[in-house]
Specification:
The complex is a heterodimer of chains A (110) and B (116). Chain A is mainly β. Chain A is built from no helices and nine strands. The radius of gyration of chain A is 13 Å and the shape is globular. Chain B is mainly β. Classes of the chains: A mainly beta (110), B mainly beta (116). Chains A and B meet through strand 4 and strand 8 of A and strand 4, strand 5, strand 9 and strand 10 of B.
Chain lengths: 110, 116
Amino acid sequence: LAKTTQPISMDSYEGQEVNITCSHNNIATNDYITWYQQFPSQGPRFIIQGYKTKVTNEVASLFIPADRKSSTLSLPRVSLSDTAVYYCLVGGNYGQNFVFGPGTRLSVLP
Amino acid sequence: SAVISQKPSRDICQRGTSLTIQCQVDSQVTMMFWYRQQPGQSLTLIATANQGSEATYESGFVIDKFPISRPNLTFSTLTVSNMSPEDSSIYLCSVEIAGGPKNIQYFGAGTRLSVL
């Protein structure tokens, strides 16, 4: 399983764009990159998934360079409600065990 | 996607007792997982529960301490046995849907357990 490295914490202000980068140097060919968001007292919630280049949905964008050894989750114009822990996971096979790293604790300030 | 219900949402238990946590899914799924999340920490996988076979436990977790049942494709239970204060944690179940997007798990809200 590919190991991931993320910043432990980040601070931002309302209305700013936030970029969280995850390193996964030993990503395998069939691995996808998936990001989750977790609020206090809730289970993690799927945000976005990608394999290469750029993926965008109504919540976030995910940028993956050609070598796929890192990825960047971009949250446009964050609000206070985006304060949460964000996890980057790498995996490829159905049923493959997930290894959650420590995640990035994002604090959005007014 | 899938909707997952966990019961109880929280409990306070005495040491030496056992608690069974239930996980109900609104659709049939093959893969179910149980995680533990200690306060302020990340998630740690306890075991994978597949219908029709015994659960597969991760290193550091044993069946005698965390017996799991998986009687059908929509339901599973995790029992925390002979509890001690070190078992105080949040326990979460998740599911992965076959034929759906790869490696996307859907989580319940968790069970917050405090052991006195």
